[in-house]
Structure formats: C-alpha cells, structure tokens
Fold:
Amino acid sequence: MSTANPYLKKAQTIFKNITGPTGYFTLSTDYWQVGCVFDTLLDYMRAALEAGIMTKTEAHTFVASVYSQYTAINAEDDGGCWYDDFGWWGIACSKAYDANYADVFGKHAAEFQAISTHCWHVMNDGKSTTNSSGQRLYQGAPEVWKTANTLGYTSLKDCAPRIDGGVWQYDMWPDYRVGACGINPNNPHTAPLGPFQLAVVNGLYMVLALRLQEAGVTVTPKADVFTFFCNWAYNKMAADDKWIRSYSVGQYLVRERVSTYADVATPGTYPPVHNYVATRCWSGDQGLFMGGMVDFMKVHANETGFDKENAIALQTMNSIIDAMFNQMLDATYGLPKTWSDDTTMDPGDYQSGAGIFARYLLYAWEHNANAKSAIKGYKTQIATAAGSCLNDDYQTYYMPPNLFSEFDAIAILLLANAVVPDGSPT
Structure:
C-alpha cells in the first residue's frame, strides 16, 4: 500500500521523466553531472521503497543500468577530468556501504563500492599519466602545487598556497599540454575555473574521505580540509580575504574559492586569486560544507581531544543553515538561489547548486540532532520551496530546463517529504 504524499508523488513523476528512454538523465554523457544527480536518485529510491511506490526489482534494475551508464561514460577512465568530477561519483557510490541503502543496491553494492574507492584514489593520488621524461603529471588534488614545482613551472611562483592543507580543482600548467582534458593550458593566471583551491573540490574531498571512514574503509588523506577551512575562515586576516562571507552574527556562507596566493619570490605578499569575487558564494558549496561538518562530527563524536573541532563544526553547520534560509531564498518563489551575487558563470553546471544544498540539508536532518532542531525552524520556507516544485514554478526559476532543473526540484521535494510530510509547517 502506498504511503506517498504529494511531494514524493511529484518526485516520482520527475524521476520517471528523467530516467525514461528519452530523459535527461538517461541521455546524459556528462560524467560529473550524472554522478551528482545519481546521488539524489538513490535518496529518491530509498524513500520510494519505504513508501511502497517502487519495488526492489525496479530499484535493482535501475542501479544496474546506471552501472552500465557509468562504464560507458568512463571508458578508459577518461570520463572524469578535474578532481572534483570524481568526488561526485565517489560520494554517491559510497552509499553502497550504507545499510540504509541495502534494498536500493541489492546484489550490485560491491560494484558501486569499487567505484567509490577508485574515485577516492584518483582524487587523493592522481592519474598515472606521465610526460616524456617519465614524470607524473597528476599526483592528486592535494599535491598540485608540489607537482607544479617538481615539473619546474617557475612562472607560477606567485601562485603558492597562502595556507597549507587544501586541495585543488585540477593541476596547473602554464603551456599547452598534449592530450590534456579541460582548459589547456590550465594556467592559474588566466583560467576561469580549473587550477584553484575552489570550495567545491575541497568540500567533495572532505565529504568523500569522511564517508569512507564512516564505512570502515581505510583511507589516508593527504590533505586535512577541515583544518584548512578553519585556518582560512577563523584566523585573523582581512574580512574580504576570509573563506567565509559574514552577513550577521551566526550567519555566514562559504565563498566560492580562496582569495589569495602567497608569492614565493616575495614573502609576505599575497596576490589575488584569479576570478575571486568577495561577494560570490554558491549554494552547492554550502551543502557540501554543511554536510562535511555533519560527517566530521559523526566520525569524531566519541574521540578524545576533538571537543574544540566538533564545536567549530557545529557552529559552521548552523551558520550555513541560518544564512541560506535568511539570505539565499528567492523572494518570488521561495526557492534556493544558485548564487549570492548576479554572476552567470557556467550556468549549465552551477545550476545544480540548489539541489546539492537540499540533498545535504536532508542528510543533516537525518544524521544530526542539532541540525534537525535548526531545520525545524524553517519548515515554512521548505514547504514554500516545495510548493513551487509541485506547481512547476521551478521550471521558470531554474532556467533553462535541463537535467539540473529537474534535479533541483526532486531534491527539494525529497527534503520536504522528510521535514514537512503532511504539507504543514506547524
């Protein structure tokens, strides 16, 4: 017998539309986009199984088809390019370790577990590509600056990390590189996105490492993103240089990238990172860092000596939740905004921000009592946003219609299904 409410029934309609023979998800060959959306489709299938609107056979058939889709997109491991591409698949597939998703994966769990650990090793250790001298060109997201130094890129000496410990979106190189994917050359002086310590790749790296640790998988992160974030966010430096944009006491968002480099040739000088904008925060980054703080507290909840770190994680999680609901909702539709400023940068990818935030807000609701208490204070806003998905206003707001506009809606509907299942914010 079905127990689905209107939110889950609408999510079911969107799921069927995007996973049908001509659906956005089915036809996509974009490696990272498919991995990102698959994460939320797993959440949908878990809820649908619990509500009786999907059978285990249907779920198992679908995840098997996604495995085939992954294999086709990732032929010869060329599907992903930048390090963050692998983070989306790694996190989604780490759910195959979670007993709550056992009925979703069925006998296919081991296949997806293998994808998750593989993606972690690419992020942490890099691809095996070498140059003509046999030198490794890619040694993992934490090693980008070290790799650039090893390869002798002296023109990048003013692009050293100001603070040690984070990860980069992709490797940096100043001249054209034969066979390289993405922006080529990936020069931090000119590239818009690639060779930077962006929030997105740091959030993904942190979450994936913690999720695998929670699952009992042995991982050895080369970067401590939590400490890296704390040093950028809470150390004494100019307000516009910090990694957090403060709105008021207890409300701040994570900026889209770190602000400055260190110049090796001139110690004590901090050149600006190309394309850094102090007012720019992406809603997807807020989800990743909020979720990362939830995972950090799960992993370190009972560890001696982590009281201070857990307090910072709790503060960060709550501050992001409050800032998102008070600063980042559209006044007309009540839907989460994509950006905190008016940028139109790469809309085909960044349009996913609202869905990523909603996915991690659902995760926080399910896994952290403090988060659940905070989220209860925003039931009205969640119901309003979900209402804009029920009546298809999301298709007007999240333009153009594509895989991510539908993903945003299904993630918001799943959040409402958990937080306001009867449609009432009281």
